[in-house]
Amino acid sequence: MGTTGILLTHFDNEDKPALMDAIRTIASESLPYPLGEALVILDETEDIEVIAALLEVMLLNLDDVGEEVMNGEYQRAADHVKRHLILVMSLAQRSTYMQFLLHDYFENAYNRPAIRQISFKNKAFLFMNLARYMEGVALTKSNVATCQQLLKMIPREVVLDAASAFSGTTIMDVYYALPLEDRLP
Predict the structure, then answer these.
(1) Considering 46, 57, 98, 129, which has the largest number of Cβ atoms within 10 A of its Cβ?
(2) What pLDDT score does 90 carry?
(3) CA-wise closest residue to 185 among 160, 150, 149, 148
(4) Cα 146 to Cα 38, 116, 137, 153, 171, distances in angstroms
């Protein structure tokens, strides 16, 4: 069974049982994930069960579609679909996706609340990726302020545990420039 057009056909026919079966078939038979169709459905539906199934299978196939998501689909997606994509990339817990989300966080203030709420729960993972990210960006006033905003969310213990690995890096310079009262205990 091919997947081209099948999800949209079931969705357009309002045949939820067939749509859910098709989504399960993609997962169980390791079929190519129809990202374009999934994004159209995610944009148009409010059905939590359909959204959850599409996102779960997308997460399973993220190695195959992640580059496509980061290289254009994310930018073209509606805001509510971006939140779904942020969730999937966050659940993957891969530095590639965290670097992408950090870049969006720094460049797009509108997406900051969603990214902060969804992606920044693992503070050690955030710190490690923020350190990597800061090594590749210009030290502008805006970038330093945004970085310090994030550093204020990270407990001192997490920073100190990684301090020796990141000694001499930009992130430590930015961290030590924070007033003591702004650092989490």
Answers:
(1) 98
(2) 95
(3) 160
(4) 33, 12, 12, 11, 12
125, two tokens: 């993972």
| pTM for the structure as a whole | 0.89
Say if residues 94 and 123 touch (Cβ distance below 8 Å).
no
Residue 135 CB partners (closer than 8 Å, separation 6+): 169, 170, 171
Q: Residue 4: which pLDDT band, with cuts at 50, 70 and 90? A: low
pLDDT (tens digit per residue) in 94-139: 999 999 999 999 999 999 999 999 999 999 999 999 999 999 999 9
SS3 60: helix
Measured between alpha carbons, how far is 125 from 93 in angstroms, rounded to an integer?
Answer: 8
Give Cβ neighbours of residue 53 (< 8 Å, ≥ 6 apart).
20, 23, 24
One-letter amino acid identity for 91? L
